[in-house]
Amino acid sequence: MNAPITVRDISAAEHLAWLRTQPSASFLQTPAWGRVKQDWRAESIGWFEGEEQVGAALVLHRALPRIGRTLAYLPEGPCLDWSSPRLVEHLRALRDHLKDKKAFALRMGPPVPTHRWQTATIKAAIADPAIHRYDEATPDVVEPVGTAVVDLLRRLGFRHLASDEGFSAGQPEYVFQVPLAGRTEEDLLKGMNQLWRRNIKKTAKNGVTVRVGDAADVPTFHKVYVETAERDGFTPRGLEYFERMYAEMSEEDPDRIRVYLAEHDGDVLAATIWIRVGEHAWYSYGASTAAKRELQGSTAVQWQMMRDALAAGATVYDLRGITNTVDEQSRQFGLIRFKVGTGGEAVRLAGEWDLPLNRLLYKAFDLYMKRR
Q: Which PROSITE patterns match (predicted)?
């Protein structure tokens, strides 16, 4: 007879200890991330089959004004065995736990891939005038676990949140990843396109250097990031946010987060934030200056982060979100062209899903979000 499945609160220390038994987990599911997101109330929960812990999650709660009911959000979580034959029981236990916590809705983003498109397939899609999105092309890999999870969520009444271009309400549904398992630096270079390889050589020839900074370099990163935001037309986060991110994640694990700076003759050309949890490394934030762009500081820093991820034992280097468009007129096209040059693959994740727990409040919340 199977042991009963329960969900209960756990301490941050218990949460982190369990994550350390796993090959990897999203950095958005670490206890430290809950301390970064100060505008949400954070809690750690665990799944148990009998007394054996089989899962964990960071839950971020945002309360509705005056009502006190919350949206319970599990970004890129929970961290569970998504192939478990008891997955329905796991999800129902989560639902019941959050209902008891007065949540009016559950939002989560299962960190499981559903489809993969390799570089050659994306390039062919870009060259084909009949294709406007690369997910209109036949994927190279269809992941059985991920597609089964999506089917199950629909059957259980969850609502999918993705927009037409693949960017959901919170975290990206389409990401670009470079597989690292079993590869050498030479293998990575061979997988890149000619432009990337040429630019990597150019950075070394021109004397561009890349160093790993520390907390004192976060303001330098932020200065470059604000310049990038003004140039590209997005609203930047404040310096305090990045200082808190660096402090909290470093305290949780000394090698959880790094600041990288590409420099030339004392000038900062590019600055980035790199994060790693177990075997998964992310290029989380990136920025570059307008000066000396011909020296390819962004290429130099990407190559160094990729090499360092490989040296740290990561099996995936994740360049985070991309759109699914291959339309050269799209503002997002340059982003995917840059990332495709690394020789990695576009990965579609299960995406973000809502489960209403109080239908009346959820409907009101949904209308409010659509009118913003």
A: FEMABX
Question: What pLDDT digit, counting tens, does each position of 3-35 carry?
Answer: 999 999 999 999 999 999 999 999 999 999 999
Name the β-bridge partners of 178.
Answer: 317
User: How many residues in the chain?
Assistant: 372
For residue 30, the 8-state DSSP code is: S
The Cα-based distances of 93 to 30, 89, 124, 229, 311 in angstroms read 21, 6, 45, 42, 39
How far from the centroid of its chain's Cα atoms is residue 190's Cα?
Answer: 26
Q: Is the pTM of this model over 0.70?
A: yes
Question: Whole-number mean pLDDT of the chain?
Answer: 94
Residue 163: per-residue pLDDT: 61
Tokens encoding 160: 């999918």
Domain ranges, ordered by start, for the chain: 5-109+352-371, 113-142+172-349
Q: Which strands sit side by side in the sheet containing 103-108, from one edge to the other? A: 5-10, 41-49, 52-63, 70-74, 103-108, 353-356, 159-160
Query: What is the CATH superfamily name and number for domain 5-109+352-371?
Result: Gcn5-related N-acetyltransferase (GNAT) (3.40.630.30)
**Judging by beta carbons within 10 Å of its beta carbon (0-12, 13-18, 19+), is residue 334 exposed, middle or buried?**
exposed
* Letter string b/e over residues 178-206, b meaning 16 or more CB atoms within 10 A of that residue's CB: bbbeeeeeeebbebbeeebbebbeebeee
CA 109 – CA 151 distance, rounded (Å): 14
* Fold equal for 5-109+352-371 and 113-142+172-349: yes
Question: Distances in Å between the alpha carbon of 279 and those of 211, 227, 316?
Answer: 22, 32, 7
Tokens of 220: 């330098």
Name the CATH superfamily housing domain 113-142+172-349: Gcn5-related N-acetyltransferase (GNAT) (3.40.630.30)
